[in-house]
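Sequence and structure are no longer studied apart. As an example, we show below a sequence and the tokens encoding its fold:
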Amino acid sequence: MGTEAEADDGSEVSFVEYGVDDWPGLGPSILLGLQHYLTMVGANVAVPLILAGAMGMPTDVTARFVGTFFVVSGVATLAQTTLGNRYPIVQGAPFSMLAPAIAIVTTVTATGGLPGWQAKLQVLQGAIIVAALAEVAIGYLGIVGKLRAFLSPVVVAPTITLIGLALFDVQQVTAATTDWWLLGLTLGLIVLFSQYLDRSHRVFSLFPVLLGVVIAWVVAAALSVAGVYTPSAAGFVDLGAVTEGRPLFPIYPLQWGLPRFELAFAIGMFAGVLASIVESFGDYHAVARLTGSGMPSERRINHGIGMEGLTNVFSGIMGTGGATSYSENIGAIGLTGVASRAVVQIGALVMLVVGFVGYFGRLVATVPDPIVGGLFVAMFGQIVAVGLSNLKYVDLDSSRNVFVLGLALFVGLAVPEYMANVGDVATFQAGLAGIPLAGPVLGTDAVANTVYVIGTTGMAVGGLTALVFDNTIPGSDAERGLTEWDRISEAEDAFQPVWTRWFGREATEAEMEEKR
């Protein structure tokens, strides 16, 4: 695969083989879309399974719950790529909103004769809907876009880097402790196809992830059938589970009942939404960096965050744990060189099918954790590299830049580790309440939940740290990378929401309003 360079006109040139607006053809697009889907399947299954366990949800309901997540993910991805920021980013179940979700479902008690899991889920739905409406306002009122002026490469680089670094201990990666060779096989195959054989045939450059995962799965399945892997082994593939259960799931809005709204829980969930916004902001810049596009304009950022808010409202109505930009998908763009919006949209349609069709979903669920772990190592490593690549615009001979970058990365790793040692939000809240003078304020549900959720999110901690110091320690625009970044940023009128295109691309905003 080629390397990024600079064109004669000074614009960025990307190594991607298929750009955002390219169409690879129907057949390749289906396979490439499936590949994008495989990069996020582990997280999109893990989040609902974790929530289902915390709520005590029955097994038969859990399968439908997981299917609902895929339906929401497919709809959210189609909405974002068509009506939102129009970047080729998959939307899926957010880890950033998982901590407040668990805090909510472990606090709620059953009421009205409902099963415990259903009562908990209804409160979770209400909290997500209220927090998401705030996200809609933040996006479409332009609040995030206005902050763009304060976000230099010195801030964005550690934020994106921490997205990858913070995920090193996800369940599928730590599964290597019990089956390291299967994880190594998957990772080795992806590296072989994407880095060593990519020039020998297009199939290796376009489908390294799909080939690596499928070959590793076939090996694991063969060992399972042969009895080498027992059902208790991390690499076991349960082929019999594919045909068990319902062939189709009935998935529809308010399927678990009407949401219940409680302010304290909504405030706690809003902290998760804030962390999600920070992550998405970093994702937008990462995609722009990979595809050689100019850094995202204020208008594109606002539309992206606003659409994420709308899709989170939709997820609350459907009864899931939210949706956000998926960093795993960005790693796939880096490995495969495929950044086609159409490919991601086809992948979204695959998600919709998986959500309703039980057989397909259960087949994907048979992929063992070590295989998903090998996939994640490649994906997250790519994200870390994309984050660090933003430093090409920054003066690294500047002591203030080195200080800000080092501190942001260290704090972004250390604070979430401290929060993990604390245990849970209740313990953290008790500690805050004991602080002299400020304890009664800091120990309230709203403050404790907000601080705890942000503190457990590495990219939020590191990004906020870099934001504060980069904008308070004296430094020139050239030193901070803003001069070079402004040169390659897309113009505000370069991004046109799709509905303005229905009236004519060159029309002004005033004309748009008149035609509406």
